[in-house]
Amino acid sequence: MCLNIQFILFLHGIELDGSHPLLLYGYGGFNISITPTFSVSRLIFMNHLRGILAIPNIRGGGEYGETWHKAGMLANKQNVFSDFQSAAQYLIDNKYTTAQRIIINGGSNGGLLVAACANQRPDLFGCAIAQVGVMDMLRFHKFTIGHAWTTDFGCSDNEEEFNWLIKYSPLHNIKIPDDPEVQYPATLLLTGDHDDRVVPLHSLKFIAQLQNVFRQSKNQSKPLMIRVDTKSGHGAGKPTGKVIEELADIYSFIAENLKLQWQH
């Protein structure tokens, strides 16, 4: 575990008593650094839902150079998920929030992060929002530009690399939690029907397997849902109207499942 929560944002004056919802956002891949950016929707989450935003710098990204990147790629990919989970545990231990009030969010490689962590530690999160995620780690290289990602992930055509991938591939590691008191987090997947980077089959197969597995569970009452946007792709260049509609659905899903009240 390598813990570095670079950004924790919340309203001045709120009491850190574990009662607040917390949005934990991550990416962790391809040498991409997650740096500060302005977000109206996150301001709304903080101002009107009294939420906390946390963005950890996890291995696989580029925040601390190529060594940091390599520590979260290929055979080391599990480090990315472990770092993210450790960030969640730190935030719980330090009274920022509780496990059932943590929302994890990421897109593309970050969607993989969200799904893998929900599979591995369903007890640690209350809600999971995975946008255009890479969910099938055994076949991603067979579709559109997926072959280019083998530099970070490896490729299942190689036996050694198959053995890395099968251990965390979201599609292949869905299971009912051993503890009957633990549910899978309330989950919303998002994809676009014209996404030619991470093709929709990733999210469609993942939600189908989620619902197939958890229909056998008597304890699962949290929803497992997908939102498929039409006439849209991976995300870049999406019209403002579509962005607003998508964010409205995301935050409505979060508010409903965490029982959050709008505050002025």
Q: What share of the residues does DSSP label as strand, in percent?
A: 5-15%
Largest sheet: 7 strands, mixed
Radius of gyration using CA atoms only: 17 Å
Mean pLDDT over the full residue set? 96
SSE string, helices as H and strands as E:
EEHEHHEHEHHEHEH
Number of strands: 7
Q: Overall 3D geometry?
A: globular
In DSSP terms (H or I, runs of 4 or more residues), the helix count works out at 8
Low-confidence stretches at least 5 residues in length (pLDDT < 50)?
none
Helix/strand-derived category reads alpha/beta
Strand order of the largest sheet: 1-3-2-4-5-6-7
Cα(first) to Cα(last) distance is: 39 Å
Proportion of residues in helical segments:
25-40%
Can you offer a commentary on this structure?
By secondary structure, this protein is α/β, with parallel strands linked by helices. Helix content is 34%, strand content 14%. The chain has helices at residues 40-48, 66-70, 78-93, 109-120, 150-153, 159-168, 201-214, 240-258; strands at 5-9, 22-25, 52-56, 102-107, 127-131, 186-192, 224-229. Helix 7 links the parallel strand 6 and strand 7. Helix 3 packs across helix 4 (109-120). The longest helix has 19 residues, at 240-258. The protein is globular and about 55 Å long.
Q: What is this structure, in a nutshell?
A:
With 264 residues, this protein is of the alpha/beta class. It has helices spanning 40-48, 66-70, 78-93, 109-120, 150-153, 159-168, 201-214, 240-258, and strands at residues 5-9, 22-25, 52-56, 102-107, 127-131, 186-192, 224-229. Strands 1-3-2-4-5-6-7 form a seven-stranded mixed beta sheet, sandwiched between helices.
